[in-house]
Design brief:
By secondary structure, the protein is an alpha/beta fold. The protein has two domains: 3-82, Alpha-Beta Plaits, CATH 3.30.70; 90-280, Rossmann fold, CATH 3.40.50.150. The chain has helices spanning 16-26, 51-63, 79-84, 127-141, 160-167, 179-191, 222-227, 229-233, 252-261, and strands at residues 3-12, 32-35, 40-48, 70-75, 90-92, 95-98, 111-114, 150-154, 171-176, 197-201, 213-219, 236-248, 268-272, 275-280. The strands form three sheets. The chain has a seven-stranded mixed sheet with strand order 10-9-8-11-12-14-13, with helices on both faces. A four-stranded antiparallel sheet has the order 2-3-1-4, with no helix packed on it. The longest helix is centred in the middle third of the chain and has 15 residues, at 127-141. It is an enzyme of class 2 (transferase). GO terms for molecular function: protein-lysine N-methyltransferase activity. Keywords: Cytoplasm, Methyltransferase, Ribonucleoprotein, Ribosomal protein, S-adenosyl-L-methionine, Transferase.
Length: 288
């Protein structure tokens, strides 16, 4: 019988926001939170027994040394079937995201994206992914996205955004620093029978430096977005489109300021819960 890795740890409520941001980027299928009598929160994660699971354990121990993080192997016991019961199709703008086993529930009139929920970030359930898909829907309705355009997806994860753009007839490149994400992305691309997406392991500088794009989307965290600002803006064609997300509301102005300093105009800021998305419908001419 297949083995699963169970990870358990406790954090104070003060650490819960940071923890949710971290887990949202590392555990695509979700986790369990149980409030404790001492106002702490107990977290439990179940993962396929993969080396990435061990990496997550070490990262939690480094980030929160007092969390009491422990892990153990357990028998599957049809857990894989049990957690599937909690999934429902997710609607984001004109897109509907479904796992393969829910195709019979698809809604007519929507653009369907099949995503296998694994360890790569991006199943449509996280607000930052939803924000990006809703902004892509908005741009498509406005006639701003057309076949023949090219995109660059930084931090592609499950490739959900790349697949959405490809379904609109746009070709492009998706990159991610996590090799396992690229494995998941390839599987999702195949499941959606999509052509025109090239994948690569790495960051914004892992492909030909001369390549520029009509649309750049990056759904990562605010720190990397600021750090990678020069590499991101270097990928923009004149008068292109830029979508940034993975940003907490209180960080939105700081991220925007970094890109304005790089030569872009002020973005539109869209809010969903505690998360923000930044949209430049026309980036103008970025200073070289």
């Amino acid at each position: 019988m297949a083995k699963l890795l169970r990870i358990q740890f406790n954090l104070s409520e003060m650490d819960s926001d940071e923890c949710q941001v971290y887990l949202g980027g590392r555990v695509a299928h979700g986790w369990e939170e149980v409030p404790q009598d001492d106002d702490s929160i107990s977290y439990t994660i179940h993962l396929e027994d993969h080396p990435l699971g061990a990496e997550i354990v070490e990262e939690i121990k480094m980030r929160w040394p007092d969390s009491g993080c422990v892990s153990e192997e357990i028998e599957d016991e049809n857990w894989g079937l049990a957690w599937k019961e909690f999934f429902e199709p997710v609607t984001c703008g004109d897109f509907e995201i479904l796992p393969p086993w829910l195709l019979e529930k698809k809604t007519e009139g929507k653009t369907h994206i099949i995503i296998e929920p694994k360890m790569a970030f991006g199943t449509g359930g996280h607000p930052t992914t939803a924000l990006c898909l809703e902004l892509i829907s908005k741009l498509a309705k406005e006639g701003r996205l057309n076949p023949g355009m090219e995109f660059f997806d930084l931090g592609t994860g499950s490739a959900i955004l790349a697949i959405a753009l490809a379904k609109l007839g746009i070709k492009g490149v998706g990159v991610d620093i996590d090799p396992q994400s690229i494995v998941c992305a390839r599987e999702n691309i195949e499941n959606n029978n999509i052509q025109g997406i090239t994948l690569s392991v790495g960051s914004a500088d892992c492909i030909d430096a001369s390549l520029k794009y009509d649309l750049v989307v990056a759904n990562i965290l605010s720190g990397p977005l600021i750090e990678l600002c020069p590499a991101v803006t270097a990928r923009l064609k004149k008068n292109s489109i830029l979508i940034l997300s993975g940003i907490l509301n209180e960080q939105a102005e700081k991220v925007a300021a970094a890109y304005i300093e790089a030569g872009l105009p002020a973005p539109e800021i869209f809010i969903q819960g505690e998360w923000a998305g930044l949209l430049w419908e026309n980036t103008g001419t970025v200073d070289e």
